[in-house]
Amino acid sequence: MVRRIDKKEKLRQKAGVKVSLPVESARPAEAAGGSGTTWKILAVIAVVLAFLYGPSLFQKNAVFQPPSKFFLVREVAQFTGDDIQGSPFFANDIVAVGPHEFALTDNLGAQVLLCDFKGKLIRKWGKNGSGAKEFREPSGIATDGKGRLFVLDTINGALKFFDLDGTSRGSINLSQYGAFSTPRRLGWGGNNILVTNAADARLYRLSLKGQLLAPWGEKGAGKGGLWGASKALVDSKGRYYMGESNAKDSRVRVYDPTGTVVQEIKTGVSADSLGLDSLGRLFVVSYGDNAKVFDQGGNWLGCLADEARPTAPLNQIAGIDILPDGLILTCGGNVITLYQLIDEKGKRP
User: Fold this and answer.
1) Of the residues 27, 147, 333, 345, which has the fewest C-beta atoms closer than 10 A?
2) Superfamily designation of domain 70-341
């Protein structure tokens, strides 16, 4: 029996949709007790879907997923503990201390290392203990940009000060301010030191003389505070950022200079550490989860990825610092990697 090819079938064929038309002597809708109009409506719907979504809509087991977004950087250097000092370390945090040098904390060796951007060890100091130049799990590290380093001696519950040559310049016992739960992240606030406390999920600001400024944030996560408070930093506008390291409801809370919450950015990953570039973009890194980048409005720009592996998000970063020229310092475990920010055309911005 001859089939008639009408305009609708031509449309279906053009869209790449394989839908069989009924022959004149066998009308499925009517044979089932339905209406021929119903069959025509279904056919029109099929044509519309074909034009909107393409032939893959009708393929077996077709899965539709939103395209992944990636924020690309270029690797410029990478070295390990073996390269730097001839033995492994566990780098917990990193900070630039000049245009060509950085300092990092080593949990494994209970020490601070100072290196240049080529991975050459300049000096190191520290050993396991509780003395002035001793540590028990040194974690967060920051600088005032004037040659002074601040190091969190986590298990000893102390904040220790050093010159870049390793000279001890005093310390602050954090237990005097209440129950600090193994603090592991800190930042420099321009004229005060920022220490986050996972015990009460608040941001503490300390003067260089140890004076405690009023902590920000509601005490306890159940009252609006954050679980597992982590890295804190301040931007060029005087806004303070505090990350949350609990992946269940991870976010970054932003305070104005008066301590008022002005923004909350839901990150979707544990905010173990934070970085800000010169354009105010927020980098949220998580050791074991994807690193993410957000604009000033809190909009997700993409997962951080090396341009050489553009669809493989970076996910082993414990600490990060970003220089004004776009150089990104990262550390995690036994690896230190330097990246350069690039624009959409693959050039340094």
Assistant:
1) 345
2) TolB, C-terminal domain (2.120.10.30)
